[in-house]
Amino acid sequence: MYCAALHCFALNCVEHTEMKFRVGQYNILGDCFADNMKPWFWYGYAGLVKNKPYLNDELDPVRERLLGFGRSSLLVKFWTLGKRFLKLFHVDFPYQMQNVSHYQNISVAPSFVCTNIIHTALCDFFNRDDLGKEGDKDLAHELFADRSSEEYKAWASFATEAGLLLHTDDWVDLDAHRHAIPGSSNRTVAINVFNRKLQQAYLRNRGMDSAADLSEPLRLVVSLLCQKKRLDGEILHLGTPRESVRP
Predict the structure, then answer these.
(1) Coil, strand or helix at 84
(2) Going by C-beta distance under 8 Å and a sequence separation of 6 or more, which residues neighbour residue 17?
């Protein structure tokens, strides 16, 4: 369990002094999160009420089409993707969205911190060639290996709306590089070649310089996730994640 109960409370509180749970209280809360394959927010998450705007901005029609109202199955799949591939909750990675300290003593909504963490994790994911002691698993080439998986479909749904497209010729090239990884004499190099080829294909098809990076379009992907407003009603725009998030 990834301290899901603590995370749920943190996202719904703006100011904290000190948060402690007795063992009995935590067990009661934890009982609601018995299925670890489901994201923490699924339990008690009702989604948005119909006819209520998300952020009342230019992306609202896209969010409504993607996520709809009530419980969004696509959003559930995205968080499952985030847990496995982006390592959003893994204790060996700096993101640790379950860490209550991320949401303490901040001047912005907790959801703003969350989206910055996700953006950082996405940028890292497309450049990662290993997972440290866990080896080279759960990397980009594995996510893109099975286009029928729920995780890939969830990613593709958001990526397509952000203009990140892959065509038939792209897949042929990417699959060739992906198949070369297992037998490579240097897997790290082979994985990095795949990562760069993938980024270049996305950038090229989006009409961007292939020498650029994916940070900008990935920011758009994250912005499609439902965000909240500040207490004063101002719409929050994503800042630089590495300046906003401290492990």
Answers:
(1) helix
(2) none
Backbone dihedral angles phi then psi of residue 235, each to the nearest 5 degrees: -75, 130
Q: What is the pLDDT along the chain (247 residues), one digit of tens a residue?
A: 444 444 444 444 434 445 554 544 544 455 444 444 445 454 455 666 777 766 777 888 888 888 888 778 888 888 889 989 999 888 888 898 878 788 788 787 777 788 888 999 999 999 998 877 666 689 999 999 999 999 999 999 999 999 999 999 999 999 999 999 999 999 999 999 999 999 999 999 999 887 788 998 998 898 887 544 433 333 333 333 323 222 2
Distance of alpha carbon 73 from alpha carbon 22, whole angstroms: 33
- The pTM of the whole model exceeds 0.90: no
The tally of domains found in the chain comes to: 1
Which distant-in-sequence residues (6+ apart) come within 8 Å of 104 by Cβ?
A: 16
Alpha helix stretches (DSSP H) within the chain? 4-11, 23-30, 60-67, 73-84, 110-125, 140-143, 150-161, 168-180, 187-205, 215-223, 241-244
Write the DSSP assignment of 25-37 as a string of letters.
HHHHHHGGG--TT
Residue 149: both structure tokens together: 């998986």
Q: What count of Cα atoms within 13 Å lies in the side-chain half-sphere of residue 144?
A: 25
Which residues does 148 contact at the CB level (< 8 Å), separation at least 6?
Answer: none
**Full residue range of the structural domain in which residue 178 is found:** 4-244
Please list, in sequence order, all residues whose beta carbon lies within 8 angstroms of the beta carbon of residue 64, skipping any fewer than 6 positions away: 54
